[in-house]
Amino acid sequence: MQHLLTNRERNSSRRRLSLSTPTSTDFSSNDFLSLSTSSALRTAYLAELTASSHIPLGSGGSRLLDGNSTYAEDIEKDIAEFHNAPAALLFNSGFDANSGIFSCLPQLGDVVLYDEYIHASVHEGMKLSRAGVRRKFVHNSVKEFTRVLGEVVQCDELVREGKRNVFVAVESVYSMDGDVAPIVEILDILDDRLPLGNGHLIVDEAHSTGVFGDHGRGLVCALGVEDRVLARLHTFGKALSSGGAVVLCPPIMREYLINYARSLIYTTAMGLPTLTMIKTVHRFIRQGETQSAQKQLWYLISYLNEKLLQLPDTPFLDVPKELSKSPIFSLVTPYPRSLANFCQSKGFVVRPIVPPTVPTGGQRVRVCLHSGNTTSEVDQLVELVRIWIEKQHGAESEDPSTALKASRGHGGVNSARL
Ligand SMILES: Cc1ncc(COP(=O)(O)O)c(C=O)c1O
Q1: Which of 179, 261, 357, 407 could share a disulfide with 412, CB 3.0–4.6 Å?
Q2: What is the rounded radius of gyration, in angstroms, for the C-alpha atoms of the chain?
Q3: DSSP letters along 29-46, please?
Q4: Range of the domain at 370
Q5: Confidence (pTM)
Q6: CATH number at residue 413
């Protein structure tokens, strides 16, 4: 263990748990709608918990044994209806849901195509799956997806004959880049190349839940393609400030997962506190209680976009050339730790993201907006980035290698970009 940890230390890739100071400004968490500090939500949650005092606190077992309840089943029905889906199945986490789906759904010889930036939980599932072919395609590239699918169709007679399934895994919004998947284009290509209906898209909506679409129903609903997507995953731990996840899918798939998804079968089901929180927050969003937060979040997204475009061109930071279409912004820099440390020292929490979480050369500072952020906080953050850039230029003009050394001192990573 020590040897491996030391290696990571040496490669500047050792992970550590950290604590944020309570007074710092959050530009990092996935609490997009700032619901985790909503006193209205807390009050509603406690009232719902009290109203459910006849229900045991703990679930008592796996969903398949003693852990099921009408309370959980009613939540599933409500959520399915809200998202215009035929059925819903709760999982203890999004990680469990993805690993469950991708480990058991592909049958022997089936094909899984996945965006190269797909979440680790999908990889976890694929590792256990019986799929014959697992192929990645270049992130968000419709052209590359078409090419990879074309190769699969050409090489595999059973795929052409509709006797072998092709599952495609994408995220609505990618957690590190904040960009949005070309869902309609992918669906059109699947229909075109697999007209017998054996192409199935599975969309992870973890970062679009609560943020995209009417009442935060997610990107698939916003695009109106609910009927064309096999399954959707919504997680509750991000914008909905709760925990757990739900898979929206046809009833047959729900039954199949209940029978085969080990991450559902062999774990204790969510207890009342979590279920109550999910129920409360869903009532909140259905009743439109989060709509002003959603609107404010989108206002801040355009505000930060505008501010970032005003930053100077510099080798120390790749200012995004394209506007971000989500609350997640990535400030690509060879010195992510230096920039993040600087902002953190001034009370603004942003995180450095380094390989292997992102590809080498793609190291960045991830900035995440929340409806509770103010425009003044956004101004201050952008000003800090500007000051940091100036400091880097100053250090470089004194000694061209100073900036690099300083950054390495903070555990910065080397980059091909400079
Ligand atoms: C895209 C994506 N899918 C799934 C998950 C896992 O969800 P959960 O946190 O509920 O386990 C995450 C992050 O945590 C995620 O970013």
Answers
A1: 407
A2: 23
A3: SS-TT-GGG-HHHHHHHH
A4: 19-37+290-417
A5: 0.93
A6: 3.90.1150.10
